[in-house]
Amino acid sequence: MRSIAFWLALILLTAFPAQSQPTETARDLEVEDWLYIDSVADATRMAWVPDGSGRLFVSTMSGKVLVVMNGAVQPTPFITESFTQGHNQEGLLGMAFDPDFANNHYVYFFAAMPGYTLQIFRYTDVGGVGVNRTVIVDGIPGGSLDYDGGGLTFGPDGMLYFGVGSLNGYREEDDLTKPSGKIHRVRPDGSVPTDNPFYDGTGPNVDSVWARGFCNLYGLAFQPGTGRLWANASSPAALQIFSVSPGDHGGWPHYDNTQPAGYLAPVYSYLPGVFDEYPFTPTGAVRQNGVATFTMMGDYLESYSYRKGTRLMISDVEDPSFNGEFYVTGHPSSRSFTVDQPEPDAVSGGGQLKRWPQGEFVMGGMFYGGTRFPASYSGNYLYTDFRGMLHRIRFAADGSVATEDIIVNREAGGGFVDVNEGPDGALYILSYYQAILRVTPVPGGQAVIVSSSDLVIPEGETKTVMVSLAMPPMVDVWVKVEAQGGGGDLSVVEGGSLRFTRENWSVPQFVTLGAAQDADADVEHAAFTFTPSQDFPVVTVQARTEEDEVPEEPGSDGGVDGGAGMDAGTLEDAGTAEDAGSLEDAGTSEDAGTQVDAGTVEDAGTLVDAGTLVDAGTGHDGGSGSEGAEDESGGCGCGATALPGVLGWWLLAGLVWKPRRARR
Description:
Shape: globular
Structural class: mainly beta
Strand order of the largest sheet: 19-20-23-22-21-25
Radius of gyration: 24 Å
Strand content: 35-45%
Oligomer: single chain
Number of strands: 42
């Protein structure tokens, strides 16, 4: 049962509509309530089983993993673990499928176990039911409430990555002999690779540590084309998105969105539950050569609190040509930021910035790689916030954040914990509170929907893509699949001609693409075209081979053979970024102003993660000072247990949706 505090908090929130997002969803999207899961109010993760069966797994904190088929929950769960739902907050926190699921049928879970311990275990899918429970990682101390972490994903190197939170706020993120506040990397059998950055064998370090200095890690996803791990980390002072490499230090607990040189700064961040209003200096608006620079008054907050890509409203500047809604493009100094404004040169004074609340706790994320949405979505990073918001990050040509928008808004109390791409190319959002939403672009005409736009096919192996139509056809449609280029090494193995009718248009059909074994080490590239018999656009899927010459991983440690694994470094270049075009205003009734050209990243893929609630931290802005962000009883407070009661008490404390205005 949800706590009284939670419901009181929701009542308080609805009393301040002027501070909430002006619109609920981007104008180019449609959102429907796809599924209501009866008697479930503790959902944590979801993911489609990667076998073409159309099964959707939904994990719950209480221990069941439900199976959804054709929009209905099946009577038999995949697994049923037994957890006590109390102040200890035991339960399932993470879920990931083995990259070789087609052969070994392994599904991995991250759980907070009885007795304050964390454990990773796997089940084998046999006939749709999980059997042969096998513990992979054990003995990690657990915290209580919202401190455990829960991010779990496989990397392109075949290794298993997981995020451990700050546990009880012991502030051990710097201590390499402790697992808390760190990203870990192990082989699928739980043994530790000797090339981990802090591996010291018989020394005191926790050898599985891969990166450190993060408060609570609930969302982990690898970015296709770069090989970098994106990590969603929450604390009372800042909600941060990191792009992490081996050995990085995210700054916690010493720095929270204020990382100096030598620490990893977030690629994007926002303040939990805060409506920002901050004034400019008397001559703080200067525009030259189409770029406007705004200088902030006083020293209450530095400009890097508004990271590149942040959408701000500029208002009340004496020269009204400066006013409007814009994306931050840079920071000339710690007191100033720039935006693009293609207007004549000018200087003015007065005015202020405003930033609408962007959420409370950053949750799971994914990179979009389908073809149902416009090309401007390809490679975008999409992530959920527990407040009930789906965020979208678009990238500039150099890979930096160009724009950040809220594209779905169901605040207050939406409880969004996960987002995933379905076999039909639509986006599915999981709510902690019994619901799954389905998001699609506003219909723009008939289209061929292909499950992936970019493939890497190992030499001598095959990959399967799913194909359907966006809407029922007037007459039967045939789709012809052909390979263009590749020197014959890449070909259509099966499914070269598909037929869609008014009865089967939405049922995915399968096309198998293969890469031939050859004697050379050259990477071959080909384009597979999906050409419909009717007059609507051809879809092209890019593919390349992965050659056999892959260096083996250094020898295993502890006498356990973990097998060879690829280095966790960068992947092959994902290609050039395309023009992302413009986005309809997703979050304000004000004039949208000029939006920057964002760009997309090719070879997006889909990786799943989910989210959590936070502990009652402080309402401090994103720049906490060294060593002093919270008191010693605190900690970061955004773990992986999604507690409605904790959320309620934090809200009642007045730290969420509270206007924050600079001291004048």
